[in-house]
Amino acid sequence: MSAVSTTDVLPERPVKKKLAVEGVTRTFGGKRREVVALGGVDLHVDDGELVCLLGASGCGKSTLLSIIGGLDEATSGDVWIDGDRVIGPGRDRGMVFQGYSLFPWASVAKNIEFGLGLAGWPKDRRAARIDELLGIMSLTEFRDARPKELSGGMRQRVAIARALAPEPDMLLLDEPFGALDAITKRQMQDFLLSVWQRTGTTILMVTHDVEEAVYLSNRIYVMAAHPGRIAEVIDVPFGRTRGPMTKRDPRFAPLVDELADALG
Amino acid sequence: MIDAPDTVPDDLVIDPPAPAPVDDALDAERASRGTGTRGRRHARLLRLRSDLGPGARIGLGIAGVAAIGLLWQFASGRMSGSILPTPAATWEALIDLQSNGILVNDVWASSKRILIGYGISVLLGIVFGMAIGSFTSVESFFEPQIAFLRYIPASALTPLFLLWFGLDESPKIWLIVVGTAFFNILMMADVARNVPRELINAAYTLGAGRATVLRRIVLRHSIPGIIDAARVNLAAAWLMLVVAELLAAKEGIAFQIVRAQRFRAVDTMFALLIVFGVIGLVSDLLLRGLRNVAAPWARS
What we know:
With 264 residues, chain A is of the alpha/beta class. In chain A, 33% of the residues lie in helices and 25% in strands. Chain A has eight helices and ten strands. In chain A, a hairpin with a 2-residue loop joins strand 4 and strand 5. In chain A, helix 2 crosses helix 3 and helix 2 packs parallel to helix 4. The radius of gyration of chain A is 19 Å and the shape is globular. The longest helix of chain B is centred in the C-terminal third of the chain and has 38 residues. With 300 residues, chain B is mainly α. Chains A and B meet through strand 6, helix 2 and helix 4 of A and helix 8 and helix 9 of B.
């Protein structure tokens, strides 16, 4: 970290980096009881990377993701995407929430189509994109089903497909598998890896699951609470090709242990 | 030769197949079972939150109606017809109302006031309710007025409205609007507030603007709640209508009740009360049907 104050200089516009978070703070509440949810966070995600924000509940990781998504405002600091300053939500940052957040009145296909229509895609291109995503997500036979009729894992696949549909610059995932049972969670992790490898989308994911973070990400930002901050940055040495063999890598278990200790 | 022994010597017995002793143990265990029970099981009809079949539910409903009918029949037999008419006399009065043309004419007169007045009320409820539930600024602006006005009994405004709007249709319609709009606005604001934030956020991150979110997420998600609120508050609309018709009207169901009172025609008064009940029941069923058609995804 630089000791030089940059407050009197215009923030530099970062290049190469897909996402840059610079000195982001977020405080809640009034003058009497001010809660510092984020006390100055810096991080970056390069093009095509899968990066995890790892931390216990209450460390501000979801708040940080909301700020990056433009759904919450930073008290100070800036978020940059491809050199543009984030001032609000937009279709360049597809988001997936823990609670699926599918539109309950719309079929699977209509849910996926929502962003495409808003982006002005013509009908035939929309249909082709929906078919493509339904195929990737193994949901083709459920295209006309309503969210209520789907299992948790299927709903989350629809949510990911809907976020991916308008081809966002990056995908922001807020504990996407937190509500799933252990078996479905494993399947969804492998599924996310395959989507990442096939589409090359840049992904930033919030999780409290240490093993999940190590298994999926290129880099892990370990967060600590009171105030929410980056406590540690870990580069995960497994490259882009992941799979069940990753967990048998001799470096896997020690890394998980090290991170679990850092969190505990 | 000695007779073959009854029992085979032990050393000649072939070992029984393995499961046999287990069976024996099981049989012994079964034989030891007594007639005692554990736990308590209540009769299905008297069980809390019981899972009754549709047959039993319909049957009980019919029994409930029959019980009231029998009670009415019994009570009316012991009282003067000028206090409590018999079901048969009430039915005859109803037929008379029909043949006089009063039924169609006055039911329509009352229904028309409800349709216009309550229609305006529901529209106000949707517009202001969605705005208050969606924008904290709008909520803060209207909160004090609504908090104050909602505690003024709308029926207390009747004399004032008669003074302002005269004796024709408009005071009745405005009374219905004023008497129900606050309830509709407040309840529909709650409906808008209950739209999950994640749905709104998801729409924003998919590129939706504010107007799109209001129309395609907030309003869309609120449709079943809006219909439910309109259904609940419809009873208040009829209440206001009756207040207005009792005071000043030339036609209408409540006006006919007042007229029947002048002639001490209790049977006609009863018949008209039953008409109120039937109209309420029918409109309730219609709105439930509308909810299922308009928002099949929210069917419970």
